[in-house]
Structure formats: structure tokens, C-alpha cells
Amino acid sequence: MIEVEQKRLPWAKKVVYFLAFVFSLIYLSWRGLYTLPWHESWFALLFGLLLWGSEIVSNFTGLLLIWNKNKAKPFEKPVVPEADYPAIDVLIATHNEEVPLLLKTVNAAVHMKYPDPKKVHIYLSDDTNRPEVKALADKFGIGYIGLIGNQHAKSGNLNHALSKTNSPLVATFDADMIPYSDFLLETVPYFVANQQERRNDQTIKPLGFVQTPQSFYNADLFQYNLFSEAAIPNEQDFFSREVNVLNNAHDTAIYTGSNTVIAREAIEAAGGFPTDTITEDFELGALINCQGYRSLSTLQPMASGLSPIDIPSALKQRIRWGRGVVQSVHNLHLFKNKTLSLAQKMVFLNSYLYWWSFLRRLLFIFAPILYTVFNVRVVETNFWVLLLFWLPSYTFLHLAMQDLSSDIRTQRWGEIQETIFAPYLVIPVFLQAIGIKETRFKVTNKAATQSKKDLLFVVPHLLLLILTIIGLVKFNYGKFGSEIFYGSVLTFWLLTHFFNLTFAVLFYLGRPIYRTTERFRAHYPVEVSDQDASYSLMTENISENGLSFVSDVPLYFPPDAPLTFKITRNGYQAEMTGNIVRVFSGKDRWVYGVALNQLTEKDYLAYLQIIYDGFNQSLPVLRDPWMTFFDSLFENLGKHLLQAKQKPLPPQRVPILTIDQKWHFDEGTYAVTTFGFDQFTLAKTEEVEMPVHLNLPISNLVLHAEKATLQPKENQVIYQVSNLSELRSTVALQEWVDSLLRKEADDDRDPAAI
């Protein structure tokens, strides 16, 4: 690994960080010494102690992030000779996933690039020993490792696979994680360079594993349910591409279970995948660190998987992660562990404390509610003393965190995400902490669908939102001037929680899912052909069952006639057929939506690579800095209301030009309002009887049209073009349409035409 020299921290930031630490220390000390409700009820005292403890932990984790960010050093991927790339085993772990999902991962794995492909050994590790999975492995010419009677979930599956393989490096993938073709080229060089460095200096730590970010090709529930697919990155990006990369400063990146390359000797030194936890990945990574190995997290995604699309699956996944991390940290005996440095312990402690942030969030929400709604005082102080101690601490810590807020996530979005999950994670994490364990491993269901029952998950947040509103009204009703000012701190926190809870309610109200497969923004060359013509165009987006392409000029394709599409990208080429299902005009272009027919197997596999070999550019990797918290809130409220009223319009299947021109037919001159290739519309005049037939000279051809039988509007007359096939067989029609557009554009620019 090549480390890049770190820039020095500006003195102004040093001052802000220092003051944040000092004022936080003063505030928390004052809170503990002078504000606890010793003379109130036992409930108030217990809640007050928990609230104070939560503030201590929140400030500690904030300061820990500041420390981590200032210790981090940028790095570059090393360049190593191709001959030095070692053999590697690629293990795709599967339990009960369907074959079509596995096929995408296997297809991508066999397309991974490597200097010597013979050194790459790919295996499907199936702990349910399914014949159809073995058939899939045989079809692609890869290894199959079946297992019967597995007692240790994913750990047992991978340990069994490790016993059947022997390459020095091991790559692990979950069943739904589709690797990019450059995955091995972007990860293996770190191991080669590390070995070369250790030959010259044995004091350099051996590299245990390289973790690439967990990435997803579909919008997660936060992005989708909150209409934020274009505004915020995936919720897990903050950890994968921010926090875990910062952990590199302490050689302690966390293993997240997939999209990872691990040194086999490091796994063996750690005793294999641990079987006493439901987050075997997290614990194995920590055990590898305990054995003196370093771990590294890279910044760029090298594989993408499927994020849960229903609320129960997302909650089950988080509960499993939370329980597992708490269990694994207990297994590590973190504070007694002598094999980890203090900095490494802080990394794992931070992971542990994260799962208690949901309890802290509930305490923060309830604290002002208890006082304003139920008259339970959990903090004993007066306004001016509170302002004196709290405001400097809050201000400077907020400034420090704002400075640290990356282009991935802001502190506000972090609070919203904690609020959304809080009611459902507090009890499982607490039970795990006191030793009441999850009885069995639960695989996240990636094939689940939405259900109306999911609306019940909104109940806790709705109740909290109602209590917050009651608190706001009750506390401020009848107050004026200085009275409102003296209560401003409580009002501030009630309003903060009101906004966070509003987002949570909107999240659980959900949003209908219309697409069966994910759409990728993609600008690739595509050749579109029908029986009469062929065009070289560009795709706009693609999916497994459809695509869209764009044209600078309106093109006519018979609505029911099959079209042929040839798409090329990075050496992949796929040919398929489909039909136009939608046409609309964009800014200076026309967009055509296509429903694809079933592909041949060869073209389907190539098309999968065209789609999935790379990050889904339809989704953001950075947050939109111009989208404020309030912008997002009002947009969400508007779109949730709109989706309840909105009725989709019938799709337009041919391009229709809106024009205002006079055409000189053989039968006379008439005003034309629209033209759609197979039909056009004339403005009707009461004085003139419109002819049944019209003939329009076009170059050396004649457009023949007949008056349509059905006339939906009284002031317009629709004519059907009767010889369109003849016209399309020459370039004359398209040249004439282009001239119409030029004339319309010239008229728009000519003030005299207005």
C-alpha cells in the first residue's frame, strides 16, 4: 500500500476541535454534578442517569470520529508485476437463494479479470446441497462444494469450503453480491505489495484482508421510501466508504462478510470462521487483527448486491447485525484483550456503541416529552445556567461535526436513520447484552415484497410524533415574549424530534414499487432496427426486462412491430428483441421506452454483464449539497400526497410533434396542430367541410391520408396516414420531418411569429 502524505490540519479547525472537547467536558461534568433529579421519583432519577450517560457516550463517539478523521492517511493501490499475482479461491456462499439470483453472481465471477485466469478457482459453497445449484456450477464450469447437516450457518459453510480448497488468498461473496470484472485487479495487488515490503522489513505487519465497500445496485429503503434516490447515497455508504476507511489509520478495517479478499494464513491463524456468533464476519476480522494482521478498507465499490426492499427484512437484517456485533465484542473480551492496541480497541468499541445509539435516540426523544406532557423533570436546572453550559458545548461540537460531515451523510440524516430504527432495535440489543441470545441464524430475505401489514410498523413513531406535538402545544400555549424565550431550549429539542419523527412516519408509510427489476442509467451504443430501417443511437437506461434509448430527432417505429437491439459495452455485446411501449420528448431529444422479449442464454449472460459490471449510475455516491433538510421534508410531504391522488396517463407509443403550421395539400391549405407519423391533426373550421382524403406532396412522393372514423375533439380532425410503409422505405419522410422541426424552431426564435 502506498500512503500519500497527509495535509496538515488548519489552525482554525484545531481550535474548533479543541474547544468542542473542552466545552463538552465542562458541560458533561456540570450535568453529572448539578442537574440529576435526586429529589424526584425513582423513575425520574433512573431516566436522568440514563440520559446523562447517553450524552456522555454521544459526545465520546463524536470526539472519536474527530480523532479518527485526523489520523486517517490517504493511500493508493500499488502497482505490481502480473507474474506475482498468486492463486485465489473465490467462495460464493449460498443457503436458500434462488438459482436466477445466484446465476448473476456466478456469471460475473467467471468474467473477473486476472493476469493468469488459471489461478482463479471459483466455488459455489452450498450448505443445503441442492442439485439445481450443482447444475448451475457445472454449467459455468466452476467448482461446487455441497454440505449436508450444517450446524453453524454461514461459518460452517465457509469453514467446510476452506477445508476443500488451498489457494493462499480467498475471496468471499454473498449470494447476491455481483462482483465487477476488475474486483481482483483492485484488491490482490495490496497483498503482493505487502509481501514484497515484508521481505525487506519484517516489522511491517502482514496484511490479513482487504475489504471493499458494501454496495447495492437498487435504492435502499431510505432512498426509496423518502423519495431521495437522487439526493442521498445508500445508508450503508457512510460506514463502508467513510467510517471503515478511517479505520485504516489503525490497521483495523472491519470485515463485513462479502466483497473481501482474505489471506488464508490469516483465517487459519484466527482459528477459522467463528461459530459462536451470528456476525461471523465481524468477529473473524477482529480475530485476524488479534493475531497481528492488519486490515484495509478501500474506497471504491467493486461489487454490488441487492438491498432489502421491504421493511420486515430490513429490520431483521439490522437486528441480526446489532445482536451479532454485541455478542462478538463480548466474545473478544475487549478491555482485557492484550493482543489489540488501544486504538484498535476504540475501533471495535465504537462499533459496539453504535448499536446503543438507538436507545440513546429514544431517551433523547422522550426527555422533553416527559417534562412537557407528563410533568416529569429529568434535568434540574434553570434556563440561564443551562444556556451557559449547554450552548457552548452544543455549538462547538456541532461545528466540529459539521466540518466532519462528509459528502456522503450529514449529522441530521444520521439522527433520522437512528429515529427510524430505534423502537425495533433497543430490545434485541439489550437482550443480547444481558446474554439472551438469538437462537438461530436468519438469512436476509432479498426476494420479499411489500405488504399492507408493513404499515403497522409506523405505530410507535406515530405515537411519539403525537406526544411531541402535544408537548409543543402544551408547553408553549399561552406564553408570550420572554416566556417563550425561556422555554426555547425545550422547544428546540421538541421541534428537532418533530422533524425527525415526521421523516420516520413518512418512511413507514412507504411507497409503491412498480418495477420488477432495477433500472441502471447507462449511455451505451445501441443499434435499433426494424424491417425497414436501422439507426445507431445511445441507450438512456437499461434493466433486465427493458431499456430506453434516445434520439435527437423523432423516429417512427410501428407500435406492434418487433425491433432488434444490439448493445455493446467494454467488449460485451448482446442482441435482443422488444417493442416500444412509451415515447416522450425530453430536452431537445426523444426518449423511447422498450419492453424486451426473452433473450437467448448467450445474449442474456452478456446482457447481465452490460448491466451489472459497474456501479449503478442512477444512484448517487455523494449527497446533493443543495438539497437541504427542509427541502427534503417538503418534497416528501408533497410527493406522498401526490402519489395518493396521481393517476398514470396512458403511454404514448409514437412520437407526436406539437406544431402550428399550414400545409398545402392537393385538396387545399389547412392548419396542422400535431403530427405523429401514422396520423396528424388539423384545426377544424366551421365554414369548411373537411375532405375525406388528403394528399400531401413530399419530395418526389405523396403522403396519402384518410379522415379517421373516431373524432374525439370537436375543434380538431384526425387523419390516418395510409401509405406510411411506402414513405418509410425512403429517406424522404425523415428529411421532411426534420424540415418541420427546423421550421418550428425558426418560428420560435422569430419574434414576428409570436
Automatic annotation (TrEMBL):
It is found in: Membrane. Residues 515-604 form the PilZ domain. It is an enzyme of class 2 (transferase). InterPro entries: Glyco_trans_2-like, Glycosyltr_2/OpgH_subfam, Nucleotide-diphossugar_trans, PilZ_domain. The keyword Transferase applies. The chain crosses the membrane at residues 12-30, 42-67, 352-371, 383-401, 455-473, 485-509. Keywords: Glycosyltransferase, Membrane, Transferase, Transmembrane, Transmembrane helix. SUPFAM superfamilies: Nucleotide-diphospho-sugar transferases, PilZ domain-like. Residues 172-388 form the Glycosyltransferase 2-like domain. Gene3D superfamilies: predicted glycosyltransferase like domains, Spore Coat Polysaccharide Biosynthesis Protein SpsA, Chain A. One of its GO terms (molecular function) is glycosyltransferase activity. This is Glycosyltransferase. It comes from Enterococcus entomosocium.
